[in-house]
Amino acid sequence: MLHSFEQSIEGIELPHQFTWPFNYVPHPLCRLAAYSTQRYIESRKDWHEELARGKMFGVLVVTDNDGKPGFLAAFSGNLSGRNSHAYFVPPVYDAQRPGDFFRTGEAVISSLNHTIGQLLSSDEMKQATEHLDTISREAEVTLNRMKETMSRHKLLRDMRRKRGDDNAILIAESQREKADYNRAKKRYRSLIDEARDRVVNLTGRINALKEERKTRSAALQMELFRQYRLMNAHGETKDLCEIFAPTPQLIPPAGAGECAAPKLLQYAYLNGLHPIAMAEFWWGESPRGEIRRHGNFYPSCIGKCKPILMHMMQGLVVEPDPMASVQQQFSPEILWEDSYLLIVNKPSGMLSVNGKTGIRSIEQWAHETYCDTMIVHRLDQATSGILVIAKDRNTYHAMQSQFIGHRIKKSYIALLDGIITTAHGEINLPLKQDYNHRPCQMVADDGKKAVTRYEVIGIENGRTRVRFYPITGRTHQLRVHSAHPSGLGTPITGDELYGTPARRLMLHAEQIEFTHPATGKNISITCLPDF
User: Fold this and answer.
1) Catalytic residue numbers?
2) Where do the domains of the chain lie?
3) When you count CB atoms within 10 A of the terminal residue's CB, does the N or C end of the chain come out lower?
4) What is the secondary structure of 287-341 as a DSSP string?
């Protein structure tokens, strides 16, 4: 399970701090470990078809008790229908063992699924549903026909009444028709109620089984979460329920504990190995809607892995969050200011608004300097450029109204990691949050509308400089529209989430144009990028 490096590592200094897994540049030893792992993956011809669809792998560089370095490898989830293979570390908890409570519980749930399916497709349910539909349609047709007949007869009676026919006879005819209609309505109501009761009884059995399935599934999942008892470098152990209890999620997400990183650290701790560096890479095609590039390294996922890893890294000397340390160095440049508005150039790496980490943001800086300020819109942490700040609530709401009404013109400059052959165009790809890989966004049919227009400015050393005109303002819109195969298919340079990390994300809010909420004058601000 512990592998030696195939290539010489002479001259490569061991890291003094463990990798901050949510924002990192892979250590040279991790790159060598990943290369060896990828060679092994390629040698497994029996996995090629499955891995072509894509999977995340991870490597962990460790030292043994004698200080000798080696590495471990892991995959996320299952591979070839199994959660354990000889080259890779085992799962934190093996729910596939014969006789395991989870497999037994799954068998009960599968039996419920089978029974529910049988009831839904049974002849009895089909006949009951068809009979209810038939009697309902018959009632509607018959009663409507009777109403039409009654209306025609009423008109005829009105004509006869004008001719002097006996009014008592006409009233009797009317009453008789109404009585016939009410009897028919009552009879059909009874027939429909009887047919509906039959369907309800059958549906009730199905719903009871579905509720039992739901209850059993939830209890089984929680019991499974309790089996994932994860260690840290201090030797302390917590299960997934304990780890996620203090988080906003409260309950672990499905698949928690099955990613590569927790498997690697758990194996190292259990076997007396000291973790010194870690990296995860994607192998194969990108999942539908998501953006993953074959062979690229990626940060650990926030939703499933961050609470787990923050526990498991306790006791290790861990690198500081690079974005946290970078942000402390920055202050925004003031581009334009009057009594109502403040427009600044936000540095790449600085938050727009306060987050949960307590890291300094533009919002905090503005409050310290101007007191009652409000951030009108946001830029991604990694994006630099023009940001508008209101100095009072009325100005804020007036500017918000212009943003919501798409009356504000904005443009961005980006450098893309490749050559775009079309001179201009429009990208229309709906977006929603990728909950398993927050803060990433994904393309989805049920996402929010996201539209971007673009024009190519020029080609620079194999990269394309592009000007973007976002029509909507979704999170990571320009980044996803650039990287996704259905967009430009070329990520923005330095995009660690959707492309390849570099010194910074080469995306800059270059220009903004709007109507001043107090003076009514047209305001146009331009701020050129530093790349």
Assistant:
1) 380
2) 28-93+228-319, 104-218, 327-526
3) N
4) PTTS---TT-EEPPPHHHHHHHHHHHTTTS-BPPPHHHHHHTT--PEEEEE-SSE
